[in-house]
């Protein structure tokens, strides 16, 4: 029996032996023939491949796989050894001017830039910006738990000395003062720190690393005008140099060399504090391989470059046995520092500088245009990068673009 559903076959209840179901046809527009049409719906049986049918296909596939395995017998694919920081740290710190490491971007160099960038960021995170705090302008953490409080214990460094600086003129865009009548210091500001890698980290990175991190500024870009009045010979600020034409921006130089004997934090200039501490650490670890890495962001980047030049010029990097400790700078979004003679002298002393800047940041373009750079290359990734290299080796600039890769 057929169950009608709107005069059509009901697919929900099919029968094994279908019965013809009359379908009333429409009147045809031609021939004046009116007749009933009958349609019989016969269910189709789907054909399922048997195991016997699929055997030839499986056998052919197995034969092809076995043939490929036979062809590969006796062929050994050598795996590339995993390269660690301990094996490549000299390249990462500019031994060959980062040739072949920027396009495409070397993963070890990327990880090191991130690590030193975090150590530069620590200068901001540890700085007391609150004018209502009695300790505004100082460091919020003790040296013993500095990295632990900032969540950077995994880096494996110990802070050995805090750095303080003073300035003879008022710098409202940079120096922070406490509103308390009796603050911790009326003239000093915490400027960064000196740290050294511990035993475990030194073993992993292949040497004992002395890191100097300089604090920058998070204020508006107009702070640059306070420091770039004119170029000043470095010899006028007691930095020994055989070339009197080597000049840097006067504001950076004063901040690096000024001192206030009435303040117990700035009785010695930032320069004197650093040179004394680096000398002590080099003597302490005289039997080990050493490296000096200086980092900083914005204004801290300018101070880092002057600091690196000063140590190389004065010979602080030369050990008692004649070995020279390599000095490298990882500069983040820093302004121009000096004239072309300063640049040439810096490179001649063997100081390696890698500048990392954002193309939308105006600070790296501030200062006097003394670097004659030309475009060297371009690589794209999740972040874009452009490499500019000057006419002399070692003047490498990595420009990090903020926009996403196109295409």
Molecular structure report:
The chain is an alpha/beta fold and 407 residues long. It has two domains: 42 residues, no CATH class; 305 residues, Alpha/Beta hydrolase fold, catalytic domain (Rossmann fold), CATH 3.40.50.1820. Helices cover 28% and strands 21% of the residues. It contains ten helices and 15 strands. It has a nine-stranded mixed beta sheet, sandwiched between helices. It has a two-stranded antiparallel sheet with strand order 1-2. A two-stranded antiparallel sheet has the order 3-4. A hairpin with a 4-residue loop joins strand 13 and strand 14. Helix 7 packs across helix 9. The longest helix has 22 residues. The N terminus and C terminus are likely disordered.
Radius of gyration: 36 Å
What structural class do helix, strand and pairing data support?
A: alpha/beta
CATH superfamily of the largest domain: Alpha/Beta hydrolase fold, catalytic domain
Approximate strand percentage = 15-25%
Distance between the termini: 66 Å
Helices and strands, in order, run as: EEEEHHHHEEHEHEEHHEHEHEEEE
> Which sequence of strands runs across the widest sheet?
5-6-7-10-11-12-15-14-13
Whole-number average pLDDT? Answer: 78
Structural shape: globular
Low-confidence stretches: 1-13, 23-39, 368-395, 397-407
CATH T-level topology of the largest domain: Rossmann fold
CATH class term of the largest domain: Alpha Beta
Please report the number of helical segments.
10
Report helical residue fraction: 25-40%
Q: Describe the main β-sheet briefly.
A: 9 strands, mixed
- In total, how many beta strands? 15
Tell me the CATH architecture of the largest domain.
3-Layer(aba) Sandwich
Q: What number of domains?
A: 2
Keywords: Chloroplast, Hydrolase, Lipid degradation, Lipid metabolism, Plastid, Transit peptide
InterPro entries: AB_hydrolase_fold, Fungal_lipase-type
Pfam families: Lipase_3
Protein name: Fungal lipase-type domain-containing protein
